[in-house]
């Protein structure tokens, strides 16, 4: 009887320890496991290898806890082949731009204070592409572009345009949808 | 007990414990790194790269696109100032001056993060102010004069206060608690 109880205790203890290891492994692997990430949702609608604009809907279902007063537009990037150049016109009120990794975490974010003539120009590049651009002497001092050295090769660029009044929402959506994501090599 | 049975039971317990605790820990709000100012809660690490594995897992699972630190701060409240859960059967007043920001929005969500109807939020531009610059916003299922936000038909709800282009987004802990709006419960039906 005591032997059965003893082996039961061992089974329980071993199960709990293994369960704990499973827990930690699953939490750490969640970016690979989850199929409902922002990247999957938005990049799935984009053709592979190409960055194309996708307008986020404001019906409250696409992105949970999205601000209904803010128009969002998103494009996916993959900078393995070359840097990404984003040109995002900013709205009258408040606008911002953020770079997210595949897992949705924020890598970089700026507001429209960095805009030149109402347009935020952001180049997302790898460390090597950045060094090559510097060596090629393309770092024009007067260039209004922001350079972001991304730690990830793939991700999303999100533009937000705040509509101060409900009547200005169509304009904010139009402004957000006007973001252009293109290969910087062209 | 036969050894094979022991091993199978061990793996069954491990799988059950692992999966249920992961599901519990990665649905809802990040368990670590919360900053509370009165009833308002924010997770400063969500807006940057230094995000812990649990917060990352939650972001990934929900498909959310968090607001970056460079863009602003997002506060959520699911309780009033007295610590009672926010419920649509009561009226609430959100009042006070707001922390410094170029623009702010106050939005009512159902617990899953969806909004109801055309008018789920108010922005700093459209709100009516008192002579001293402070605001009073009434939350109720019935239409009321002044700054009114309708509540969803049933259940609990969540309030979100977003401060866009706030000088304090880099260090939300430095926000003066007195500048955050108070959530006071009115009469309940």
Q: Can you count the beta strands of chain A?
A: 9
Of all chain pairs, the largest interface belongs to: A-B, 64 and 63 residues
For the terminal residues of chain A, how far apart are their CA atoms? 77 Å
Task: Provide the CATH topology of chain B.
Answer: Jelly Rolls
Total number of beta strands of chain B:
10
Instruction: Please state the oligomeric state of the protein chains shown.
Output: heterodimer
Helical amount of chain A = 25-40%
Protein name (chain B): DUF1214 domain-containing protein
Domain DUF1214 (chain B): 72-167
Question: Would you give an account of this structure?
Answer:
The complex is a heterodimer of chains A (186) and B (189). In chain A, strands 1-2-8-4-5 form a five-stranded antiparallel beta sheet. Chain A has a four-stranded mixed beta sheet with strand order 7-6-3-9. Chain A has helices at residues 2-33, 38-43, 127-135, 169-177; strands at residues 53-55, 70-78, 84-89, 94-101, 106-111, 119-125, 146-149, 154-162, 180-183. Chain A is built from four helices and nine strands, in the order H-H-E-E-E-E-E-E-H-E-E-H-E. Chain B is globular. Chain B has a single domain (33-188), classed as Domain of unknown function DUF1214, C-terminal domain (Jelly Rolls), CATH 2.60.120. Chain B has 189 residues and is an alpha+beta fold. The model of chain B has no long low-confidence stretch (mean pLDDT 89). In chain B, strand 1 (35-37) and strand 2 form a beta hairpin.
């Amino acid at each position: 009887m005591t032997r059965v109880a003893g082996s039961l205790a061992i089974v329980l203890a071993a199960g709990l320890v293994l369960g704990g290891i499973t827990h930690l492994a699953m939490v750490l692997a969640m970016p690979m496991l989850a199929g409902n990430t922002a990247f999957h949702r938005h990049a799935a609608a984009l053709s592979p290898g190409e960055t194309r604009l996708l307008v986020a809907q404001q019906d409250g279902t696409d992105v949970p806890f999205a601000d209904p007063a803010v128009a969002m537009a998103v494009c996916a990037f993959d900078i393995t082949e070359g840097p990404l150049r984003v040109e995002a016109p900013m709205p009258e009120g408040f606008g911002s731009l953020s770079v997210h990794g595949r897992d949705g975490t924020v890598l970089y974010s700026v507001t429209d204070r960095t805009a030149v003539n109402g347009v935020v120009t952001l180049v997302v590049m790898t460390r090597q592409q950045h060094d090559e651009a510097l060596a090629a002497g393309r770092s024009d001092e007067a260039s209004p572009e922001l350079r972001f050295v991304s730690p990830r090769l793939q991700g999303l660029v999100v533009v937000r345009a705040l509509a101060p009044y409900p009547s200005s929402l169509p304009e904010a959506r139009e402004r957000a949808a006007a973001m252009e994501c293109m290969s910087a090599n062209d | 007990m036969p050894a094979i049975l022991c091993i199978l039971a061990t793996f069954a317990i491990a799988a059950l414990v692992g999966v249920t605790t992961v599901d519990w820990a990665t649905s809802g709000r990040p368990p670590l790194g919360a900053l509370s100012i009165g009833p308002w809660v924010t997770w400063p690490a969500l807006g940057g790269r230094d995000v812990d594995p649990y917060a990352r897992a939650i972001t990934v699972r929900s498909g959310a696109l968090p607001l970056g630190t460079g863009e602003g701060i997002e506060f959520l409240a699911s309780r009033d100032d007295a610590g009672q859960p926010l419920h649509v059967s009561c009226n609430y007043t959100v009042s006070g001056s707001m922390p410094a920001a170029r623009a702010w929005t106050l939005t009512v969500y159902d617990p899953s993060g969806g909004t109801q109807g055309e008018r789920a939020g108010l922005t700093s531009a459209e709100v009516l102010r008192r002579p001293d610059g402070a605001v009073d916003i009434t939350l109720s299922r019935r239409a009321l004069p002044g700054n009114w936000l309708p509540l969803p038909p049933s259940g609990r709800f969540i309030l979100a206060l977003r401060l866009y282009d706030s000088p304090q987004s880099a260090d939300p802990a430095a926000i003066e608690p007195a500048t955050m709006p108070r959530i006071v419960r009115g009469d309940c039906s």
